[in-house]
Amino acid sequence: MTAILPWRTAPPSVGHRTRTHRTDLREGWQRLRPRLLVLLPILFGIAALGCSYGAWRIARDNAAIRALSAGQDVVVPIGAAPALLLARVQHLARRGAVETIEPLVDALERQGAVERAARARFALANAHLRQAFDHLERGDLDPAGPRITLARQEYRRALQARPDFWDAKFNLDVASRLLRDFPEFDRKSGDELKAEPKKIWTDIPGQPRGEP
Description:
The protein is 68% helix and 0% strand. The protein is mostly helical.
C-alpha cells in the first residue's frame, strides 16, 4: 500500500514577500498621511512659539541690562540668566549695596557661570574697597579695615575662578598694600589716621581699577 503524504504549500518566493512588504508600507503611509497633515501645522506652530518666546526673553534681558547699565534700579529674579544677574550685581556694586550682592553671586555659581561669577566677585570686592577709601578720606579708620579685608577675600575668590584676571590681581595688591602700610588698622580704639588722607592716594599703587 502506498503511503499518502500530507499536502504542503510551497513557500512564498522572495519577490512575493518584497511586494507584500511594499504593499503594507504603502497602505500604512496612506493611513498615516492624513494624520500627519493635521499634526504638522500644529508641531510647526509649537516650534515657532518656542522660538518666539526665546527671542522675547533675550530681548527682555537685553533691555534690562541696558537699563541697569544706565543706572535704573531693575529688579532681577534669582533665577535670571547669568548676563542679567551680572548686570544687576554691577549695578548694586556701583551703588554700594554690598549686602544684597552675595545671593546673586551664589546664584551665578550654582548655574556654573564661572567667568561671570568671577566678575561679580570682582565688582563686590571693588565696592568694599571703595567704601574703605571713603572711610579713609574722612579719617575714619575703624570701619575701613574690615572693608579692606572683605575686598581682599573677594579678589582672591575671583582669582580662584579666573587666575588670569589681571584687574583683580592689581586691586588685590592695592588692598594688601593698604594693610601693610597702615598697621593702624589693627587698633581697637581711636579713629584718627597717622597719615594725611591725601598721602594715602600717593602711597598705594593706584585706585581700584576695572569694572564696578
